[in-house]
Amino acid sequence: MGFDPFMSNVPQGLQSAQYNPYAEEHNTLAGAGGSYYGSQNTFTAPPQPLQYHLYYPLTPIRDHLQPHQQAAYDFFLPESLRERLQKKSEATRQVLASRPGVQSLSIQNYHSLVPLDTKIKSLPGIFGLPTWVWKATSLKNGKVYCLRRVEGFRLTNEDAIKVVRTWKQVAHPSIVLTVEAFTTRDFHDSSLVFVHEYHPLSKTLAEHHFPIATSNRLSRPAPVSERVLWSYLVQLSSALKVIHKAKLAARCVDISKVILTEKNRIRLGACSISDVIQFEAHRPVEELQQEDLYNLGKLILSIGTNTPSRNIQDFRPLLEQLGRTYSEELKQRVGWLLWVQTQPKTAEQLVCDLAVHIDDQLASIYFAEDEITCKLGRELENGRLVRLLSKLGTINERPEYDSDPDWSETGNRYMLKLFRDYVFHQVDAQGNPLLDLGHILGCLNRLDAGTEEKIWLTSRDHQSTFLVTYQELKRQCQAAFGDLLKASTKQPQQTNRGF
Questions:
Q1: Are 470 and 450 in contact (CB under 8 A)?
Q2: Angstrom distances, CA of residue 28 to CA of 35, 39, 45, 471
Q3: CA angle 324, 330, 332 (to 5 degrees)
């Protein structure tokens, strides 16, 4: 069929199929033979699906290592990040040692309670009642939550606990989300329990900036960086802005209730507790919001002058001390929070005044996001390789198929067995084991991509040699694993997940 120039607006010929990079055959009319004419497209399809055997950085971050300094760990997460994540995972899964005849503590829909408080006796804090913090696992979804028990509280008004429903709608990166609240007598008294999100290995700002001295009590700690103080001020003011906009008040802006979850990453915890405990007080919300801003200035002043909040009676001399250590701008901002103004202060006004420092905080967040994205990119291909290794492990040398010729030493699966030896059982000229992670990763990535590259596979007795491509090995692997899936699905109660 020729080309008709008078029918330029009418599509002539068949529509070309969209190129599928994962297809085994890249012919547009697969199964119908080759096209009569050659390809007329400007850009032809690449010969291979994807270059899976090459690792590319996802973001152009700054790398201080020279090419000859690259090592095997460049393919994986940095050890510092991996160790920190593993410690958090270990803390999340930690449970108390079981004792014979003693059942683990459980309340309502939560089990495996683990105390997070290291103190022997709890003293009344900002809530006026002793509180205890626990870690527990939910029976509903299996997630771990933080339970804060208010000891000796008797709920007299059912409307008080309904305030928690409003707090459940308040979501912010600098606020620990409130899940629910309930009363219980499982502690052999009348207790009120608040459920919040759990952040493993977090600690309060009081524990971080005012640790218990164990050695030299006369040594004075170094002052906190002004950049850190501005970061605290920006994060907490942003949280208060969201809370006040919801017609609520935090009422827990205290150095003992703000937790540090990561480096300079803080969250406002224990929200909604004062609203329930002091429900009968009926204080105006505007007055409580002004108190939040005052407590915010008191918190920054406490950390900047290394003075515990309970010891601050007159903030004027401490404010002068803050001005001698830090900039005049920080002193004025903290003073604005502490002094009583003629007009009511608002969190929105505070956020507007912190615009310059919010920009610095935003730049730091972007840098951290680029770094995390690059580090996660190292693990992007590794999850795919684990699935490929799982398939190879299920195929090779299955004892129940010893009598099956398709799985014997002369069957098609024999190639996969030799490929396993080629990848993992390399030896040098003297017969010593040769451990090369680059060789292993390269072979597995080429197999997953199914490239046209050819390799020599030699039997262990050196009597047989095969020249195959990675594409042929991939087809054999898919066919063998497909046979296993068919055999495993004969039992209706079995499921194949993850592949």
A1: yes
A2: 9, 10, 10, 19
A3: 90
| Alpha carbon distance 203, 238 (integer Å) | 21
User: What was the pLDDT predicted at 101?
Assistant: 64
In terms of pTM, does the model score above 0.85? no
Note the helical H segments in 193-346.
Answer: 205-209, 226-245, 273-277, 285-305, 315-325, 328-338
Where are any strands of DSSP class E within 116-209? 131-138, 144-150, 178-184, 191-197, 203-204
Q: Is the dihedral of CA 16, 19, 22, 24 positive or negative?
A: positive
The parts of the chain modelled with pLDDT lower than 70 are 1-75, 101-103, 120-122, 213-220, 401-411, 490-499
* Torsion from C-alpha of 295, 297, 303, 308, nearest 10 degrees: -40
- Spell out the residues 6+ positions from residue 333 whose beta carbon is closer than 8 angstroms to its own: 233, 353, 354
Cβ–Cβ < 8 Å for 488, 480: no
The pLDDT assigned to 395 comes to 84
CA distance 441 to 423: 9
Specify the pLDDT at position 355.
92
| Residue 494: per-residue pLDDT | 54
DSSP 340: P
